[in-house]
Design brief:
Blueprint lengths: L1 E6 L4 H17 L1 E9 L13 H29 L7 E7 L2 H11 L4 E6 L5 H5 L3 H8 L4 E5 L9 E5 L4 H17 L2 E8 L7 H9 L6 E7 L3 H11 L4 E5 L2 H13 L11 E4 L5
Parallel strand pairs: 1-2, 1-4, 2-3, 4-5, 6-7, 6-9, 7-8, 9-10
Antiparallel strand pairs: 5-10
Length: 279
């Protein structure tokens, strides 16, 4: 059985993302592992109390009590949406969330991480450098990030940002497998910058390999990647944006130059970040 990791801080942002986690678990026949992390109080090294373990145990008990109350709340959400059958378990860890997720991904063979993100200052800008951004660049499994503005609706159309490399072909192939479970279609987007060396013949040969897949291909000449992606999402009625990430370099190449222009891009749909070893 596949496993979905759902980190939560008990917030409304997490609640909003949980419905997507449920729907993914239902479609992929997966179980959900809930994760909550907490921080220990900062103590001067010269003044560590003798009863430090007792302090830790007390805090852990308090956190677990809150966690169990919250789990009841999540189960009610699942029941209300007809997904009370989804299997769930929970983990409580102290320390940094990113490190905790890395441990859980390895220890529990996680296939997918679903987490909420705030889009207060713009979707791209808030994701870059955020905790969700850290998860995307540091974890080895796909991360589905859910903006707080995204209210769940059936996923019918999925956008895939394409660079027409072999690794993109392999990622698209994995995405097709997921898409078929949703009964959705994929719209592949290649933003063709003015200095690209990719020929029309290369693109045609690449696309011919995918002729049996439920994929439409769009090649749009433009030098502003972010603006083109946003327009594509709006004009093509995209429900889920999918990108193949390449660690930190991906975000730097795609976003950094445009960030200096101080343009705020507001995208209110989920994004699935795939890695080369994917779902």
């Amino acid at each position: 059985m596949k496993r979905i990791l759902f980190p939560t801080d008990f917030s409304e942002i997490a609640d909003n993302a949980f419905l997507y986690a449920l729907k993914m678990a239902d479609s992929l026949e997966a179980e959900i592992i809930l994760l909550h992390t907490f921080d220990m109080p900062i103590i001067d090294g010269a003044e560590i109390p003798i009863n430090f373990k007792e302090m830790y145990d007390t805090l852990e008990i308090q956190q677990m009590s809150h966690f169990k109350d919250y789990i009841t709340h999540l189960k009610q959400i699942a029941e209300k949406n007809g997904m009370g059958h989804i299997q769930m378990s929970h983990l409580l860890k102290s320390g940094d969330l990113t490190y905790a997720m890395q441990d859980v991904v390895q220890e529990h063979n996680i296939n997918l991480v679903v987490m909420g993100t705030s889009g207060v200052s713009g979707w791209f800008d808030s994701l870059f450098g955020s905790q969700t951004g850290e998860a995307i660049t540091s974890l080895t499994v796909p991360v589905l990030s859910i903006p707080v503005e995204a209210k769940y609706k059936k996923i019918k159309t999925i956008a895939f940002t394409n660079l027409y490399r072999e690794k993109d072909f392999e990622a698209l192939q994995r995405l097709v497998e997921i898409t078929l479970k949703f009964g959705a279609t994929i719209k592949s987007l290649y933003v063709k910058k003015s200095f690209t060396s990719l020929s029309d013949e290369d693109i045609k040969a690449w696309e011919e390999r995918c002729s049996a897949w439920p994929v439409q291909f769009f090649v749009i000449p433009h030098d502003d990647v972010k603006e083109t992606i946003q327009d594509f999402i709006n004009n093509q009625h995209i429900d889920l944006l999918t990108m193949l990430t390449e660690k930190r370099g991906f975000w730097e190449d795609l976003f950094t130059s445009s960030l200096t222009q101080k343009i705020s891009y507001k995208i209110e749909i989920p994004m699935l970040a795939l890695h080369e070893n994917g779902l």
